[in-house]
Amino acid sequence: MEAIPIDRQLGNAYQEKWESRSSVRTRPRKWIDFSQEGYFFPEEKQPLLLRQEIMGLGQRAKEKILLQSFLKYLNDIVSLETRLINSACYKLIDGHSGLHYNDDIKLGAYTVLIDEHYHVYVAQDMSLQLLSQFPELGRFDYPVSDAHYAVALIRQRMEAKYHDAFEVLAVCIFETTLVRELIEFFNSANVHPSIKYYVNDHMNDEARHYGFFYEILTDTWKRLPDDYQEAIGSHLADFIKQYLNVQSDKRFYADLLNRLLQDAKQSSAIVEDLYKGFEISPDIPMVKNVLSVLKKAGVLDNRHVKAGFQAMGWTL
Ligand SMILES: [Fe+2]
Ligand SMILES: [Fe+2]
After folding, report:
1. Best CA proximity match to 44, nearest among 62, 32, 58, 60
2. How far is the CA of 112 from the centre of ligand 2 (A)?
3. Which ligand number lies closest to the CA of residue 118?
4. What tens digit of pLDDT does each residue of 197-214 get?
5. How many angstroms separate the alpha carbon of residue 78 from the centre of ligand 1?
6. Structural domain span for residue 178
7. How far is Cα 181 from Cα 270, in angstroms, rounded to an integer?
8. What is the pLDDT of residues 142-195, one digit of tens each?
């Protein structure tokens, strides 16, 4: 396999920032203070609460929905950060992918691995605190996230030699868009102070990861040979559409409602109705965000990438 050298330098500043500011180095254990008031998930971000028949179930039901939404959120963090991001970091480090990063980037990838394992630990710790405080919550069989589904689906559409580079780029896109979005989500009133504190700490690390992965995205893309850019680039539009999808949320909401209503058919009907007419389009803020990162990183200039978006009917 040909070696593709990627030589972006981060310099000492990145390492110094991590040494002095990373959460794992500097922050205490996250306890949830159950004596304080507040919802465990931002109410305006839970579309089930838009429905009159659900609000009619009362305050306890609302609190339960928000608690379960937070547990699902923590589960998503665990699955995204353990599998996809860690696997991409090892690809940066071991060189088996044919992409050869310098020692500076490899050291940075180790800091990300530590951070993400720490985030998973914190998310697990908080889930267990919640489950022991509210034993009636019970556990869920959570659906596969759209991010995982998108990587698995799009990977199949390209030859095996391009898989690793695609996975690295996919994670660069997650770390510069998805993760931030997930975290900024909690900047709203009435959210429990312990949860806000937790989310801010996570953001502290993810802001640094944004910088790291943005550099990797820009440099990796620029140095990929034409056949890689074509093989991966022609599927990027579809990948973006798939990973921003809401299939996983919809399935979770239907399961959650079914627990409250004890009626699977009615639960699915309510969720379908909530999302009637919803489509991933370039006007959605999250999509704009992704497109602007791809543009800044020079990915959108590629004709195969452009053609993919055009084929989807998106004018950029
Ligand atoms: Fe994280
Ligand atoms: Fe991260």
Report:
1. 62
2. 7
3. 1
4. 999 899 899 999 999 999
5. 9
6. 48-311
7. 26
8. 999 999 999 999 999 999 999 999 999 999 999 998 777 777 778 788 999 999
